[in-house]
Specification:
There is one protein chain. This protein is mainly alpha-helical and about 190 residues long. The protein has a domain of about 110 residues. Helices cover about 60% and strands about 0% of the residues. The protein is built from five helices and no strands.
């Protein structure tokens, strides 16, 4: 059972004077106005979004039709083989001449490294455009010729003086393996291989 007190609650007397007046909140009208503006703007945005008809975005330009790679040993491979035969023979001649300058790490071969690197860089600038103009060749032949070109560039760039390191040997081996595809396909398609 709850007991109710019969005593009255006595509060202290209310203060008098300037401290007794409660200051008016002057910023309340700013808050109310900002809220009203927000509600009105939100309503307007909703109405516009429901009534505005979006136009379809402009169609993106269609990409150029993809060139379909030809079959291994097809006419496009024959054209590519004919276009690169002289460049491949030049690469072989350059590499053979460099290797013939003495044993690996010899002063003669070390002295020839800058010239060898320059020759390979020049060769790369000439074979890459040829490869780019034959996109219809088989993926096998194009992929491996790009790999051959890249590996040859890497080998020449990393070739330093002294005996060939294991990384250089690996790059050179990769280069020769990649060129194997051209020797697999091209001799069957035309002379010079």
């Amino acid at each position: 059972m709850v007991e109710v007190s019969t005593e009255t609650l006595h509060l202290p007397p209310a203060p008098t004077g300037p401290a007794a007046t409660i200051p008016r909140r002057r910023g309340r009208w700013i808050t109310n106005s900002a809220t009203a503006i927000g509600v009105i703007a939100g309503g307007a945005a909703l109405v516009l979004s429901l009534t505005y008809h979006h136009s379809a975005p402009a169609a993106a330009p269609s990409p150029a039709p993809a060139v379909v790679a030809g079959p291994v040993g097809g006419a496009a491979d024959k054209a590519l083989c004919a276009a690169i035969v002289d460049l491949v023979n030049e690469a072989n001649t350059t590499d053979t001449a460099f290797a013939g300058l003495g044993t690996d790490g010899s002063p003669e071969r070390d002295a020839a490294i800058p010239g060898y690197q320059a020759a390979v860089r020049d060769w790369v600038t000439r074979i890459e455009p040829v490869l780019a103009t034959h996109p219809g060749a088989s993926e096998y032949l194009l992929r491996t010729l790009h790999r051959f070109t890249d590996d040859r560039r890497i080998y020449a760039a990393m070739r330093g003086t002294g005996p060939e390191g294991s990384d250089e040997t690996a790059a050179r081996s990769d280069e020769l393996l990649a060129l194997g595809a051209a020797y697999d396909v091209c001799p069957k398609l035309g002379p010079g291989w």
